[in-house]
Write a structure and sequence with these properties.
Lipocalin, about 25% helix, 9-stranded antiparallel β-sheet, 3-stranded antiparallel β-sheet, alpha+beta, about 350 residues
Length: about 350
């Protein structure tokens, strides 16, 4: 009887342990995971960061914003900036005369707020110069601040065996921004869907997967640019692309294949022709920008087969005078490719 009881207890323990292991072994779905260095993560960072570009008339930097109220002196005019509508007063003072210095001088001390929501008190202009010197180079792509993620959201963190190692509940923009900023680039993450977001019109939208979330944020960029009066720039992509030479700074097709295009320099001519040069190898091509049912696209084509992978109709996501981001969703396997040109 004792032996039977021992066997029964052992069997129960094995069953319990087996159940526990089964519950813990939740394998991730590759199509719904991302890393902190992915395109989706970059979009989430820009959506959740503390807005820093909207007050560039004051500080001329998207590295931080200046906490209001603040007093500035422009061309001998003292202006109290109490809210965002007062930025126009500063702009008016700058535009008033053509023969003045147009420098915005702060009445110190002032408090600045970084993208990660941390604050710093600056006592004088030397402190400001030090901060500006330490700021990373601005890539021209600012916050996406006319949409909102409706918290809380849950993010699963996977271990090297593709099993859930941890789960974190995100309750604010600052928490999401700092979580993504401080997560190792090789760590796999997954948002637990569905989640709710609010679009630029104030309407709530249900998001069910990574693709929907990425598309939602990308589609909102132009809306947010319009709300912030101007967007990426006032120059057309055609004018930008036909100015100077370009290189491929990022190409992703299932994996990062940027290195494949190292050494190529691209010239895009106003007549629709293009030229890719690497060492003594010249490859002729064509390019064309068109509108596809409201979506701006660019078609790239090149002679031969060396540049086959970038021959496609690319959706234009956004651009600055020195950088152009493109995206293509394959009609075959449904995969998403990314292509970024940077000006030399």
């Amino acid at each position: 009887m004792k032996k039977y009881s021992t066997i029964l207890i052992s069997f129960m323990l094995i069953s319990i342990i087996g159940c526990q292991k089964e519950e813990e072994t939740i394998i991730q779905d590759d199509t719904q995971t991302f890393t902190s260095s992915s395109t989706l993560s970059g979009l989430l960072l820009r959506t959740s960061q503390f807005p820093t570009a909207f007050d560039n008339v004051l500080d001329n930097s998207s590295c931080f914003s200046v906490q209001l109220p603040v007093t500035v002196i422009v061309n001998n005019q003292q202006i109290l900036v109490s809210n965002q509508s007062d930025y126009q007063l500063v702009q008016n003072a700058i535009n008033q005369f053509s023969n003045d210095d147009d420098i915005v001088n702060f009445v110190y001390p002032i408090t600045i707020v970084y993208q990660n929501f941390q604050t710093q008190v600056l006592q004088n202009s030397n402190d400001l110069d030090d901060v500006l010197d330490e700021c990373d180079e601005d890539d021209g792509f600012d916050e996406i601040d006319c949409i909102n993620i409706n918290y809380p959201i849950v993010i699963n963190i996977y271990d090297s065996n593709n099993q859930i190692a941890n789960t974190i509940t995100i309750t604010s923009n600052s928490m999401l921004f700092n979580f993504l900023s401080n997560t190792n680039s090789s760590t796999l993450l997954a948002v637990v869907f569905p989640i709710s977001v609010t679009n630029s019109n104030g309407q709530n939208v249900v998001i069910n997967n990574n693709s929907e979330l990425e598309n939602f944020i990308e589609d909102s960029i132009s809306d947010c640019d319009d709300d912030s009066n101007g967007g990426s720039n006032n120059t057309t992509l055609t004018e930008i692309f036909t100015s100077g030479t370009w290189y491929i700074s990022y190409f992703f097709d299932d994996v990062d294949e940027t290195n494949y295009f190292n050494g190529y320099n691209f010239t895009f001519n106003s007549n629709g022709t293009s030229l890719a040069v690497k060492n003594s190898n010249n490859i002729n091509g064509t390019w064309n920008i068109y509108n596809d049912s409201g979506t701006e696209k660019i078609v790239l084509s090149f002679d031969g087969s060396l540049l086959d992978e970038i021959e496609d109709d690319w959706r234009i996501i956004e651009y600055t005078p020195t950088l152009v981001k493109l995206k293509h969703v394959s009609g075959g396997n449904g995969g998403t490719d990314y292509l970024t040109f940077t000006k030399n």
